[in-house]
């Protein structure tokens, strides 16, 4: 049996001036107000030949409606996770075994009103909020929790 490849992906920890991180609630989990897995960090695929730093700003613009941010740091490693069995029916999980991600810490340079989840005609998120960096692992779905724990350690110097 041949294993499927990982999908190349970028992720963003967008810090506000108070050191909190933007988390967004998945539109397909609208009743997950405080539940683990309903909230996540912006992330998305990398286009062929696309510069990673440009990709993370593009993903922010697509997912939260603004790219008003400056890159503070890049995680030194690629992080990956496998899709769990319950997601195997998803279209993306039929092509990829999981995601291989390059994460960035960014400073938000805009105003809260710049964040527009409805900028995309098919928004991935239906709500957003600022969260303490330490909250991230508790908000993550189980298969992303180790990555979020790593991100908290790596980017602790930017968080509150």
UniProtKB/TrEMBL annotation:
InterPro entries membership: Nudix_hydrolase, NUDIX_hydrolase-like_dom_sf, NUDIX_hydrolase_CS, NUDIX_hydrolase_dom, RppH
Annotated protein name in UniProt: RNA pyrophosphohydrolase
Cofactor: Mn(2+); Mg(2+); a divalent metal cation
Residue ranges of coiled coil: none
Domain Nudix hydrolase: 5-153
EC number: 3.6.1.-
Family stated for the protein in its record: Belongs to the Nudix hydrolase family. RppH subfamily.
Keywords: Hydrolase
GO molecular function, one term: hydrolase activity
Motif, Nudix box: chain positions: 44-65
Enzyme class, broadest EC rank: hydrolase
UniProt KW ATP-binding keyword: no
Function: Accelerates the degradation of transcripts by removing pyrophosphate from the 5'-end of triphosphorylated RNA, leading to a more labile monophosphorylated state that can stimulate subsequent ribonuclease cleavage.
Organism field: Falsiroseomonas frigidaquae
Keyword GTP-binding: no
